[in-house]
Batch of 2 targets.
Target 1
Amino acid sequence: MTRIRFQRSLEDLKENLLVMAGLAEQAIQRAIEAYRVRDLSICDLVNRSEVAINRLEREIDQAALDLLAMEQPMAIDLRFILAVIKINADLERVGDSAKSISDRVRNMEQMASVDLPVDIPRMASLAAEMVRKTLQSFIEADAEMARSILTMDDAVDAMNRAAYKALTKVMAEESHLAPQALNALMICRSLERVADHATNIAEDVIFWVQGADVRHHKTPTGGRDAQAAR
């Protein structure tokens, strides 16, 4: 493979990853909108997005592995391909989180709408902003922007802890609201995972651009260390 063809293949890989990123971000936004308005037709859109995201994940992984097999990339190109593989996995998990939220919305269809002591739209907005910002740092190869995302995860973690405390109290003291509180709690957990995946992506951007491994940069309350399921 000539160097020109190799560079074009890298650009194609980047473009496909950005398409997948757009789908994952849209899926989260739709899932939260479905929660806000209790619209199951939006849940259907989230489910269709997951199918597309899963297909792209397989295609991107295969393209990245083909590039590694056919060429001996220079250091920064090698880091880029490795970063794409890891970012690809995290974006697929963002899609999974969106589907988890939409599944919870379906569970709540027959439940009475009640006010709960948690601001899910605000938490969702911050998690979605993290995803957008990480993707912008990837597009611009901006390691400093990526570093700024690492501290945003702390805010989402704090909101998740506060939600857990408030919602478990509701379940203990107002048992008739336990189903709604449990679903809200699981939605908050999914949003916390979205923020974790955005943090992972930011770490991978830093690794690609600077060759610096900043994983495990903080305590196990956030980031990669918080993801037993990754």
Note: Residues 199 and 217 are 11 Å apart (CA to CA).
Target 2
Amino acid sequence: MKSENKLIGAGLLTAITASLCCITPILALLAGSSGIASTFSWTEPFRPYLMGLTFLVLGFAWYQKLKLKKEIDCECKPDENPTFIQSKKFLGIVTVFSVVMLAFPYYSGVFYPKTGKQIIIVDKLDISTTEFKISGMTCASCEEHVNHEVNKLSGIVNSKASYEDGNAIIKFDKTKTNENEIEKAINSTGYTVTAKKEN
């Protein structure tokens, strides 16, 4: 029974670790300290391995839980009813929680408040588009974090961050904000602007 508890604990730990890089930006937003968002981005390259390890560990825990026990003739004391932590129900809860954690990057955007603004453009010549190269973004949660911070600035027409391309393309009104302010907003997330190019 102790080995099953260790398997369940290991499965839970690997699932949380695999999603840590994507959960941290949400926690940073909730805590109001967006600079810590990229703290666990170093775990992203290990995510596929941690996910695989989670599935292996939980799969083995389920195998252990469901395998038929051999009847042995002995005068041993029969197993008492297992505690909740040793039950199939608890293992099921841990498995569902692990799947929810592993899928977190795909639905993390729902945790960011929508920053809908009414943009009034006086002169189209005042609109500029700049591409900011950003290091440290590893998932969709990172993109949402960058977009959220940039959209707090006045004069932002459109913000589209991409962790796959390692950039954010920002369309803004030059009379209300500038590239330096946008760069500061991006850097405040914990990710770093490495280059910028006006389009």
Note: The chain has two domains: 2-70+82-110, 116-198.
